[in-house]
Every structure is written in C-alpha cells, then in structure tokens.
Specification:
This protein has 295 residues and is an alpha/beta fold. Helix content is 40%, strand content 13%. The protein is built from 9 helices and 7 strands, in the order βαβαβαβαβααβααβα. Helix 1 packs across helix 8 and helix 4 packs parallel to helix 6.
C-alpha cells in the first residue's frame, strides 16, 4: 500500500534552456520597461536568447548599465534608453530611439512598476499618487504609444502587462499597488478587444514568488520573516525568474496568436491556496511591526 509523501512540482529546466525553437524571435524587436533588473531582466534575457533585439527603458542609469551588461553577455543586439513612463513625451522619445536603432518594436513588455508596503491609514497622498502614476498610468501610456504606432503603420504587435495576483484578491498592506494592478488587469481585457481588429494582441503575466538579487528591501524583509519559503508554496518550491521569461516568450510567440485578453499566473497555484481552518487575524500594522496608529 502506497504512503505518498508530498513531493511538490518538479524544478525548472536549467538556465539557458529554451522552450521555443531557436531563432523564434530573429528579426523581432522587444521593448521592456524596467528591464534592467530582476524579473524584467529575466524576461528580456529569454527574448534575447531566442534572437530578439532588446530595448530596455528605465529611469535609473544604474539599471540601464546592468541591462547593457546582461545583454552584452548574451551577445544580443540591445539599446538602453532613459525613460520616465509617467511622462508620455518621455515614452515617445524612447520609442523614437528604438525605431531609429532597430525599427518599430514588435513586442512591448510593460514591466516597470512602483510598490512598497504601508498600512492604508498611514499612506500619504504622494505615496498613493506615485504608485498609481507609475504602475497604472505608465502602463497605459506605454501601451497607447505602442498601439498608435502600429495602428498607423498597419502592422501587428503584442503587448504583455506584468500584473499581480492581488488584482483579484486585494492586497492588505499594498492598497495603492493592488488598486493599480487591478486596473492593469482590466486594461488587458479592454485593450485586447479594442485593438484586436488592428492585429494587436494584449495579455497579462503575473509572477509568483521568484527570489532574485534585485528584490527590494521590503520583500527581502518579508522573506526573512518566513521560516521556509518552499514549504509555504503548494509547489513546495519557489519560482525561478527564467520561468516568467519562458511564459512571456510563449505569450508573444507565433504559437499563441489566438490568446488575447488573458492574464496568465505563473506561481505554482499559490494565490489560489485556502486553508480548511482559518488562522487568527493579525493586522497589517502588527505584521509590519508598527506601533498603534496616531493621527
């Protein structure tokens, strides 16, 4: 009689493996916002491995330097451009630079976002506006610039918006980011319908816990307070950044042309986990180690 022990989901193939045929993106241009670090760089890397020319846009020069180094290590044609996605004129200038170097980008990955944990009652007006402006408005402005140019040129394109699972569930401690990401998810569904007739595919892609060296201090702190990250996942392991990259390259590939208006979650089912018995409620303030609220 079998006494099955939990084994979790198998680990990912090694870094450098390819899920799609070599050269799938030969001659294609991929524009990635926030692609110099973390998961954005992992996505850009997988497109580059498959032959794409990469354009990385970021506000921070040090992030652009990291992107240059990563793409050079792969021998990939690349351009880095400084861009503030809150400003439509800055986005237009970044696209002009991309067109000048490689031609009109075929794929846009809206990865750039802003986020930090804060109890909703402590959040300043500036904090709220900043996160909404970057995560929601910036994603829309980039998508609009990309779509306008393709509609004008009568050429097809593909947009991938990086989202978050709390777009569905809400995100205690992240009211600003959760609201913005809910808007980004809705944008996927709306723009896929509006722009489908013009040949523009729009999808969302949501990462689970995928530790990497560029994580923010607050995420590192959250992980440090978790005893065993693998045991807290239904998969019994965390995700690998390359797994997000593989998902992105599939969604924008010729093999996924009829997928549009969909948001794909790559998190080993973690966001769907529910307990048979509910644990005691701990306020966000207590979880973050904050004292009593003072007006």
């Amino acid at each position: 009689m079998s006494t099955s022990e939990p084994i979790g989901l198998p680990d990912a193939p090694e870094l450098g493996a390819q899920a799609l045929p070599a050269g799938t993106y030969d001659g294609k241009v991929v524009f990635v916002t926030g692609g110099g670090t973390g998961l954005g760089r992992a996505v850009a890397t997988e497109f580059a491995r498959l032959g794409a020319s990469i354009v990385v846009a970021s506000r921070k020069p040090e992030h652009l330097e990291q992107a240059d180094e990563a793409m050079a290590a792969l021998g990939a044609p690349a351009l880095t451009v400084q861009c503030d996605i809150r400003e439509p004129d800055s986005i237009a200038a970044a696209f002009d630079a991309a067109v000048s170097r490689f031609g009109l980008p075929d794929i846009l990955v809206n990865n750039a976002a802003a986020n930090f944990p804060v109890p909703a009652e402590d959040m300043s007006a500036n904090a709220w506006r900043t996160v909404i402006d970057i995560t929601l408005n910036g994603t829309y402005f980039c998508a609009r610039e990309f779509a306008r140019r393709h509609i004008d040129a009568n050429t097809p394109g593909s947009i991938i918006n990086i989202g978050a699972t709390y777009a569905w569930t809400g995100g205690p401690g992240f009211a600003h980011s959760a609201a913005a990401k809910a808007g980004v998810k809705n944008m996927v569904e709306t723009l896929a319908v509006e722009w489908g007739p013009y040949g523009i595919q729009v999808n969302g892609l949501v990462p689970g816990l995928m530790p990497h060296e560029d994580m923010t201090d607050d995420i590192k702190g959250n992980l440090a307070r978790t005893n065993d990250k693998d045991a807290c996942q239904p998969a019994l392991r965390v995700g690998r950044p390359r797994e997000l990259g593989w998902a992105a390259t599939f969604l924008a590939s010729p093999y996924a042309r009829f997928i549009s208006g969909h948001t794909l979650v790559v998190d080993g089912a973690n966001w769907q986990r529910r307990s048979l018995t509910q644990p005691e409620v701990v306020t966000v303030r207590d979880q973050m180690g904050k004292g009593p609220f003072e007006l």
